[in-house]
Request: fold
Amino acid sequence: MEMTEIYETTKSCRICFSAHLEEILNLGNQPPANSFYGPEDSKPPYVPLRLMFCKECKTVQIGESVSPEYLFGKYLWVTGTSGTALKYSEKFTKKALEYTNNKKPFIVEVASNDGTFLKQFQNSGCKVLGVDPAKNISEIASKNGIPTHADFFTRDLAKKLLSKHQSADIVYARNVIPHVKEIHSVIDGIKTFMDDDGVGIIEFHNAGLLLEQLHYDYIYHEHLFYYTLTSIDYLLNKHGLYIFDTMESPISGGSWVVYFTKEQRDKTEALKEAQRHDVVQQDNQYKNWMEFSVNAKKHANKLWDLVKKEVSNSGKIVAYGASARSSTLLNYCGLTSDHISVVIDKNPLKQGLLTAGSNIPIVSYLDGVRLVKEVDVILLLAWNFKDEIIGELVASGYQGKFIIPLPGDPKKI
Reply:
């Protein structure tokens, strides 16, 4: 790898170490997605954002690795701000507990954030432990009664924690495995912490949806990997772990949850069917990813034209959702503070800051509701929470239209 400032360019696949990496889509130089900054702060650095395809193991990944300390040392996404995530946490907990017979199971979460999901397990009578590298978020979790170790989860840390705790009945990692640079160390760490009869759970965005629904806004520097069921199975098998079940998740616009053990179990019908779909859709084919690249460029031009038309007719519009994925969308499409006056976001950690690259002020929901009464159109950047957000805004008195950028072609409703 070649190191340049806060990032390094990879020359080989991070999973199988093959040198046969091919560029699929170049999204240009962009600041890391969560590099929000204050009006008096210096602007964040720019890093190439390129999607790559390994022709050996078929794993899709990005070409540059940004320093994990830069990305995750202080984090601004808090799980508890999403109503959808809160509701889903109940379903996730109930399903996970079906796979343990222990009356008071020990549950470990990798990248536990503010402890929203562990709280569900705790309320179900479980002993819990969270591990998260963001000290500011770990402190929030600890204050809320969720024991949390503030550090990056690795093979060595798992051994250290295991010396202080029992082995875990369930170890799970939600929406973090795609982020992990030291991926083999983390998977080994999960295996190390799991009891011999324990179950591991990984939740990850369904890379097939990038192809099927054009989720190119999900490509950003935190997401090193874009897994399909086939490629996640390959990774786990390399570490002597075996998937036996799966379920779908509404998070991130569509994710997979896979359940695995140290010993092979009979696969459920749900897993067999999902794996068949993975193969039929050809989600691991290079030619399909190249077609995705062409479609992403066309989509960006269509969204630009749609927003530009609104701005020409009525002046700047308002956007909703200063998510990481919105950063990619705004920067790739060339949408900035010249087109969008503010971005509304409920997360208090982001309010008062500016979006990375596009330089748009982020305001609170209450302030935003006052503003939207004077606009005709809202660009719904957090489109993956569309129903929840539209319902709240309409209930708050908004009577205008919404631009829904994805999935598929951008549309005004």
Q: What stands out?
A: Residues 286-314 form the longest helix (29 residues). The mean pLDDT is 91. The radius of gyration is 21 Å. Residues 288-412 form a domain with the Rossmann fold fold (CATH 3.40.50.720).
